[in-house]
Every structure is written in C-alpha cells, then in structure tokens.
Amino acid sequence: MNVNSKYKGNKMRRIAIIGGTGKEGKGLAYRWALSGHDVIIGSRSIEKAQIAADEVNELLPDHVKPVGGLENIQAADWAEIVTLTVPFAAHVDMLEYLKDTIRGKLLIDVTVPLVPPKVSVVKMPEAGSAGKEAKMILGEDTEVVIAFQNISYERLMRTGDIDCDVLVCGSSREARDTVLELVKDAGMVGWDAGPLANAMVIEGLTSVLIYINKRYGSKESGIRVTGVTGEEN
Amino acid sequence: MNVNSKYKGNKMRRIAIIGGTGKEGKGLAYRWALSGHDVIIGSRSIEKAQIAADEVNELLPDHVKPVGGLENIQAADWAEIVTLTVPFAAHVDMLEYLKDTIRGKLLIDVTVPLVPPKVSVVKMPEAGSAGKEAKMILGEDTEVVIAFQNISYERLMRTGDIDCDVLVCGSSREARDTVLELVKDAGMVGWDAGPLANAMVIEGLTSVLIYINKRYGSKESGIRVTGVTGEEN
C-alpha cells in the first residue's frame, strides 16, 4: 500500500478512534499507526478496545508503535484528534457524552446517517447532516470535520490502493487541511469539499453508492474526482 | 467523440430542450441530434430558439437531421421527452407554465439549485431538491428524472470524451432506464443513482465541484464511479 514518505504528513498526532472496534475504526487505526501516528482505539469496555487493538497490532510490522485500547472517554481525553466511528443511532448520545472532554480539540466525524432498512435512500437528520448535527452539539470551540464516509471499509485493512477518493468538509479550512494530511497518511487521495453545509452531499453519497452496488451487483463502488489540473489556491 | 453505434440506444426520441439557448441546452441538443434523435430547442422567443438551433446545426455533419427551434410551449407540446435547462430562479415558474402540456410525458430536469453568490455552498430548496420540487409541481402522471448536473457544459459542444459520469435519479426505474439510454447516446457514462430522494446528493455535488474548482484552481472537475465489477440487477 502507498502509505509511505511520499504521502506522509509532517506531524505525528495523538488520535483516538471512538467506537473503534468495527471495521472502519480498526482500518483507520491500522493505516494511521503504519504511517507513524500514535493511535488508541476506544470502546465502551476496555476489554473490547484491547481486543480490537490486538487485532490491528497483529497486522502491523514490528517497528511500528502498537495501537492501544481504552474506554471511549479516556481515549478521547488522551487524544488531540478524536475520530468518531459509531452507528448513526448512537451519534447524538455519544457526542453529548464526549462534549466536555473534547472541547477545543478536532473531531473527525465518520458517521453516515443511514436509516435502516432503506439505507440506499438518502435521509438526512434535521440538522441537515451528521456533521452539522455534531457541530450543533459540540459548539463553537470544537472543530468538526467529516471524512471517510464513502470508503468501503473492507478495503481499509488490506494492502493496496483504495480506488475511492475522500471528500472532506469541515468547520474551518485549517481543520480541513489537518484532516487532509491524515487522509494522505492513510494512503488515500483527499479533496477539500468545503464548509459543513456541503457535508450532506458527501454523507448522502454513501447511500447513492449503496444503491449503485445493489443495482449493478457490486460491493465496493466508490468515486474519484477527475479533471483537476490547476494549482491549489 | 464516442457517440457511435456502440453507445447508441435503440429508439429514436422526440426531445425538446426547454430554455435550451444556453451552453448546456445547445450541448445536449448537439449530442442527441448527432446520435439520431429528433431535437427541438425551446426558448421564450422563437427567434432566439432558431438562432441557438442554427449554432448547433453549423456544428452538425450534413447527413444529420438538423435541430429545430420553437417557443417553449410548442416545443414541449411536440416532444415525448422534455428536458429542462433553465436557471434555478426560473424553475418553479417554468414548471407551472409547462405542467398541463407535459402531463404524462417524461421530464429530464437538468436544473441545479445554485443560490448566488455562494454557489459553492450547498443550499437545497424546501422540497429537498430541484428534482423533488419538479415532481411536487407536476404530480403523479408525469415522470421526473434528474441528470447532467455535474457536467461542465464547456465540454458538451466539443468532440472527445467527457471525463465525468452522469448520475441519474428519478421517479421510476423505467424512466431512469430511458434517460440512461439518452446518456449513452450523448456519449457519456451514466449510473442509476436511485429514487428522487437521492437527487439532493447529485444536485449538491455540483456545488462541491465548484468549491473544488475554486480551491484547486481548476475549471472542469468532475466525478467518476469506480469499483463496479458485478452484473447488473
């Protein structure tokens, strides 16, 4: 996989992955640990967190600092960047629970507002998107960036390219740029997709890709941004 | 360009392009005429419609049936498929005006709900999307399909591949399949992106691409669907 110096951001980060025992959480932990970041998986129980961390550590080469496991609130307290990978049904409650602990930090929200059983039909929460919902709960002092919604999580714990770009929306350009570095570090191509008002498009695209998978008998549809040839502004 | 027998749908259609004197309308007229469809450009004035049709006809080879020009309502009355390419500010009024004339036909809505001056920030109408707004106005008897929102219109009147896929949402699978044939006939790759509830994602993606153009100094960003390897269902 292309997690190497070419893609590597400049700064080592302390990253917690809240609700990180699922495939998406373990996949991101694996890729970020591999590129030199300090990663802790959080879960409601420390035992489950450590089991998930052990699974990731078995895949990591010996020279890499192993991933740790803690309860969610301890992981969030330790981290400078907090990644949220919980089912949408737990989104509001988990954010209320974390709110004070992560004040002033950067939240990367990976949540997709899927409403079973019709997960191939877009249905946004009243706030407009999961990202805007997070920002409403966390308030002015905490930056919120949404990312990684469209990645097929099957791909994250494999080596090799991921044939899907990562669209990043967030509450400030500085926060988006920090997350774009972490996208690179995870071996993926990221794009600044603008303010949180645009998050509904990126989150909703997951339902569209689920629909395309169903209609075309696929499992891992994704998207690539094309036609960008200019210089960054 | 790849408008050839390989891509060609089975059926010749009578297609009106309402508000078709802009780049998007003329571009679609050009590509559909080239692939053998019967096309009329509509405008508020027949003179403007005919000037636009003449521009398109100058680009078409001699053996192709020329594009016609009519007033919007006459063009809509003549057509079996009605394509709407008006600015969002004219969307509701034009649909009210056309409603009775196009009852029972298929509307292809190309409208993007951009709200100047912040066109790089997603802002959907109260109905949820322009496509849902059209369906609310037109009612049960008229099929609505949204398509072509993400194509840079600069590309439509040029020869050569368009490096952007077309995501198609609509009120029935049959209507989406008809439009997917027309996407092929226009030399593009189309995907069934599901029901009209998903239209907000495709329409909103235009603002995201405008944001990406601005941020990365590009003019023609687009998207491609990747990773689809299965068999259609």
List the helices and strands and how they pair.
The structure is a homodimer of 233-residue chains.
Chain A: E1 14-18, H1 23-34, E2 38-43, H2 46-59, E3 68-71, H3 72-78, E4 81-84, H4 91-98, E5 106-109, H5 130-138, E6 143-146, E7 166-170, H6 173-185, E8 190-192, H7 199-215, E9 222-226
Parallel strand pairs in A: 1-2, 1-4, 2-3, 4-5, 5-6, 7-8
Antiparallel strand pairs in A: 6-7
Helix pairs in contact in A: 1-2, 4-5
If helices are DSSP runs of H or I spanning 4 or more residues, what is the number of helices of chain A? 7
What series of H and E elements makes up the topology of chain A? EHEHEHEHEHEEHEHE
What's the overall average pLDDT of chain A, rounded? 93
Could you give a short account of the major beta sheet of chain A? 8 strands, mixed
Oligomer: homodimer
Helix content of chain A: 25-40%
Rg measurement of chain A, Å: 16 Å
Distance between the amino and carboxyl termini of chain A: 29 Å
Alpha-beta content class of chain A: alpha/beta
- Strand adjacency order, main sheet of chain A: 3-2-1-4-5-6-7-8
User: Rough shape of chain A?
Assistant: globular
Can you give keywords for this protein?
homodimer, 233 residues, alpha/beta, eight-stranded mixed sheet, 34% helix, disordered N terminus
Explain this structure to me?
2 copies of one chain form a homodimer. The first copy, chain A, has 233 residues and is an alpha/beta fold. Helices cover 34% and strands 17% of the residues of chain A. The first copy, chain A, has 7 helices and 9 strands. The first copy, chain A, has an 8-stranded mixed β-sheet, with helices on both faces. In chain A, strand 7 (166-170), helix 6 and strand 8 (190-192) form a beta-alpha-beta unit. In chain A, helix 1 (23-34) packs across helix 2 (46-59). The longest helix of chain A has 17 residues, at 199-215. The radius of gyration of chain A is 16 Å and the shape is globular. Chain A starts with 13 loop residues before the first strand and ends in a 7-residue tail after the last strand. Residues 1-8 of chain A have low confidence and may be disordered. At the A-B interface, helix 7 and strand 9 of A face helix 7 and strand 9 of B.
